[in-house]
From TrEMBL:
Its EC number is 5.4.99.5. It is an enzyme of class 5 (isomerase). Keywords: Transferase. This is chorismate mutase. GO terms for biological process: chorismate metabolic process. GO terms for molecular function: chorismate mutase activity; transferase activity. The chain holds residues 1 to 266 of 379 of the full protein.
Length: 266
């Protein structure tokens, strides 16, 4: 059974030059200098369409860096003004949505730890009512397709039609070389239920290390996913979060050059 969603095709709300969408930027905005330097290096590659940075970070355990907070919006605004790149942040509650929209953030995303909670998703959906901002919805942490669908329905139900799903893998008790198991079949099932819904792959959070990212990226493109979100940092070795999986802007450009995109069938 198909899902009853009202979704606008990706190329009607984001210019990707008919190439897979590439979203990149640091896991976390750390300092203004780190964000701006990374943004300028990324823009100079000419490969990316959207700059991402987390400013409110959901950490598994307390006591670690939980994001730079609202000041990061000012840095992102400056990065946008200087590079011309649209900007994206993660939102996890109504206050985040209000602040991000007031700052002119172009794209919002809902993180895996928020998608698991219908109350949180509904709070975000209610805060989005009356706005026309694109929203990307990561899969929930656990392999529950219904929760992912439910989050998409809640955001769509608030009148948001510029929606994409982000496939970032699923936690599993099994020992694995991935940080989050791809479980591709769940993304494929989602696509089958809603063919018009763009699916963007997040190889960074699937892999948990930069070495595997090219393979997962290629696999996602082979499955006709419409884009990639890949974390990048001017100096990944000193990143405050997700250091092992971030790549430099130069490495990102190289990685993207090696990917092959299948010609659409005639
Ligand atoms: C992130 O994108 O940095 C992030 C926290 O991802 P996820 O919600 O997929 O864990
Ligand atoms: Mn991250």
């Amino acid at each position: 059974m198909k899902l009853n969603l009202n979704i606008q095709p990706l190329n009607t709300w984001l210019n990707t030059n008919n190439e897979p969408l590439l979203i990149s930027g640091p896991c976390s905005a750390e300092t203004e200098e780190q964000l701006l330097t990374t943004a300028h290096l990324l823009a100079a590659t000419g490969k990316i369409s959207v700059l991402r940075a987390g400013i409110w970070k959901p950490r598994t355990r307390p006591g670690e860096f939980e994001g730079i907070g609202s000041i990061g919006l000012e840095w992102l605004k400056r990065a946008k003004a200087e590079t011309g790149l649209p900007i994206a942040v993660e939102v996890a509650n109504a206050k985040h949505v209000e602040e991000a929209l007031a700052a002119g953030v172009d794209i919002l995303w809902i993180g895996a730890r928020s998608t698991v909670n219908p109350f949180t998703v509904q709070e975000i959906a209610d805060a989005l009512k009356g706005h026309d901002v694109p929203v990307l919805i990561k899969n929930p942490v656990n392999p529950d397709l219904q929760l992912w669908i439910g989050a998409i329905e809640r955001i769509n139900g608030a009148g948001i039609t510029k929606i994409g799903a982000i496939h970032r893998g699923f936690s599993s008790f099994e020992k694995s070389s991935f940080r989050n198991e791809p479980m591709w079949e769940l993304a494929i099932q989602l696509k089958t239920l809603c063919p018009e819904l763009p699916i963007i792959n997040d190889p960074s959070h699937i892999c948990g290390n930069r070495e595997l990212i090219p393979y997962i990226s290629q696999k996602a493109l082979d499955l006709d996913m419409q884009g990639l979100m890949i974390e990048s940092h001017v100096d990944p070795s000193v990143a405050w979060t997700d250091a092992k999986q971030q790549v430099t802007p130069a490495a990102l450009a190289e990685l993207v050059d090696r990917l092959t995109v299948r010609e659409p069938e005639a």
